[in-house]
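Checklist before submission:
- one chain only
- standard amino acids only
- sequence pasted in full

Submission:
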Amino acid sequence: MAKLKRRFKRRLKKKLTEQEKEQRQQIQEIRRLLHNIGFSKVPGISGKEFVYNGRTSEIDDAFHCENILLLVVVAINHEPYSKRPCRV
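Returned file contents:
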């Protein structure tokens, strides 16, 4: 009996935009920093969306250390702080 050869299609990598690259780099820096100061990443939280005061947001990461819980949301905006609208 002849063996069947499987051929796998190669997946093309998605080209990341500058904003996606910057956001990915920021997330890696935050994870590395928090890990170095003793925090552990909470698995299964990344990418969860929630609604607060009518706004939908997404939790990028969650970290814990003893009795401290940090929820991390990464946002990139290239406008200077003086030109951003004030939100309360």
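Reviewer check: The chain has one domain: 18-83.
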